[in-house]
Amino acid sequence: MLDPELARKNMKLGWALFGLFVLLFAGTFVVALIYIALSR
User: Structure pTM?
Assistant: First the structure.
């Protein structure tokens, strides 16, 4: 069995990485929309 403290730390790291992925994914769309808006 995993140590509960280690499991909690791993969950926090996992959620942080997931949040970073979501921000980067959303950021691609934001940059694309800005590029389209400024290229007209």
Answer: 0.73
